[in-house]
Design brief:
The chain is mainly alpha-helical. It has one domain. The chain contains 20 helices and no strands.
Amino acid sequence: MILLNSIHTDVSMGVTFLFLGLLVLMVLALALEEKIHAHKSVITGVAAVFALILGQATGIFSSIDSHGSHMPFFVKFIDWGVIAIILGSSIFIDITSKSGIFSWLAIKLTKMTKGDPFKLLIYYSIMTVVFSALLNNVTAMLIIGSLTVVSLSNLKKLSLLLGFLICEGLLTNIGGLLTLISSVPNIIVGNTAGISFASFFVISAPYVLVATTGTIFLAGKLFKISPLKTDQEKADAALLITNFDENAGVESKSFFKLGWFVFISFILVLAMTDLIPYIQDLGIGFVAMAFGILMMIKIKNKTETTYKAIDWDLLFFFAFLFVVIGVMEYAQVLHLIGGGVVQLIDLGDTAGPIALLWASSIASSVTDNIPLAAMLAKTMGNLPEFAQNFWWAVIYGANLGGNITPIGSASTVVAVTIIAKNNLKLSFVGFIVKAVPFAFFQLVLASGYVYLIGLLN
């Protein structure tokens, strides 16, 4: 039987359940974010304020020795490495995208399909996975979604738009599994588990390849997106794509070339962070910030435009969330929740990871997967050593659960928003009905893959 190691404080069960109730309210508020008309940062900020006041009132922080420190103890709850990665990457991507390299690539790939809808689905699907892996899920969905509308409109195939957007929305969460920085749950769990950027990619890439292929095949069948068959259909489609101009978004050739060079360098340095002297000790957060600052040289007298584009709500959301999680640790809530995790781990190295994967995927389908990943990572981080595939079970479950409901991930929310803007009818239940076959396939595949990881380790 695995025993939990947690911060020792004399906390009564009543106090623990009081803080658990606060945590549940926060998670429910995040799930109902749109209905209560409140941003994530406001929800977690309010929760952090109440959690700290309740913590002082109940005396759960009595074991903290902040004597001689000029920094408030709760600031230390924040994982500044995660904050640095998100902030640095946001700055870097915003400036680099102005070079036109992303729009150029998308339109170039569209022209390569010669107007064939199924080829377009394959190309956009691959691009969705790659963009989600290298950028972030929301940005990828916004870029690919908007380009898909334009492409299908020009091809006079808007009847296929719903299927394209659903497939792309689901694939953002598949692409989010490709690298350590592809999604926030990856960053949180990966950092806690000590998984490097390179090893994360090597382990996860085979799953992403198979899951992407299967998802594209299912989308073609379920949404009736088929290849062009007759010569006349192919000729008509080829004529329509002549309106596409990949150079329309390129304002400066020198900036365009610089964008490609720096973007490729960014990915390479991230991949080799653990091998580069000095840099390996500074970490991925430093790399992201360094490249973001280097790109700011390009707009050194117009930095305010990039500052406005940064998702400050997301950054403050994380800061407040880490404070809440830190308080929950002192309130023994993590110890309580950890008991459930321990029960799953105690099922053994075969059934345990699979049970944890499905449990975390179901939980993340109705709540925000970021608090879920943070909570599980913190809880599991306090446990003695266990099989590596348990960490991967949480990573896959937290990401893939977002494909079950339209509120399961930010990217599926964006996909549904684009669907609504184009006057396509899709209810909450309707999304689930269309998404469940994909999610079931992806989770079954992930279960087998997590089991394989356990055998290989």
